[in-house]
Amino acid sequence: MATHIPTNTAAAPVMAMQMMSSSMLNTGGDWKLELPVLKGKGITLRELRVSDAASLLSQLTTEEVTRFISPPPTTLEGFERFIQWAQRERAAGRYACFAVVPDGGDAAVGLFQVRQLDPTFGTAEWGFALGSAFWGSGLFMTGAKLVINFSFDVIGVHRLEARAAVLNGRGHGALRKVGAVQEGILRKSFLRGGTYMDQSLFAILKEDWYRSKAVWGVKVH
Asked: What domains sit in the chain, N to C, each tagged with a CATH number?
């Protein structure tokens, strides 16, 4: 996906997107004050901490991970500034960014982001970045479904969009796997390495998501 991790506090993030059964913890409060902890099989999603900067620098700056995303910060201080920015944007009600923490550890190995595309947060864009060592582990599917549920149930999103470079076959497959529908091609819409790439626009509507969940029989506690 065309994930964008801002390298300065003025930049606006973009992003985009792994659950069979799950539980959601600490969702009683206002997410703008503190993100809830989302728990699924093998994974915990929690608010980013400044202490996550070192692990994110290690996991999200490899060539495999950065191939189809905007360049992430290249220093520890850059990731620390991004995390502080993410916390301010969450407090303002414009953005939510979860750290991906596999069971048995405490270090963040990736992140999921959701940002508003209109003032009401009715339409939003989501994305993800995950360390390549965890590709194919099931963390993406579990985390993605947790984040989609959070977006629809807690934030109140109606339409959730994602963008993926046309050449990003893995990203396209992941989006389709969680039920996203490809709606069109955004021509030359993503600048990477000095080249403008075409992107595919995907979307999930709230009513379609719950209709598919009813078919799956997925239970969310």
From this structure: 22-160 (3.40.630.30)
Q: List for the chain the helix, strand, coil content (%; round to 5).
A: 30, 30, 35
Q: One-letter amino acid identity for 150?
A: F
pLDDT band at 67 (very low <50, low <70, confident <90, very high): confident
Nearest CA among 190, 92, 209 for reference residue 147? 209
- Report the distance separating Cα 59 and Cα 50, nearest Å: 15
> Residue 33: is it exposed, middle or buried by C-beta count within 10 angstroms (0-12/13-18/19+)?
exposed
DSSP state of 81: H
Residue 124's DSSP bridge partners are 116, 160
Cα four-point dihedral sign 129, 153, 35, 108 = negative
Q: Which two tokens stand for residue 212?
A: 């598919």
For residue range 68-90, what is the model confidence (pLDDT) as tens digits? 888 889 999 999 999 999 999 99
User: In this structure, what DSSP letter does residue 47 have?
Assistant: E
**Taking the model in full, what pTM does it have?**
0.84
Q: Which residues pair with 96 in a beta bridge?
A: 114
How far is the C-alpha of 51 from the C-alpha of 106, rounded, in Å? 10
38: its two tokens: 């989302």
On the question of pLDDT at 11 being above 60, the answer is no
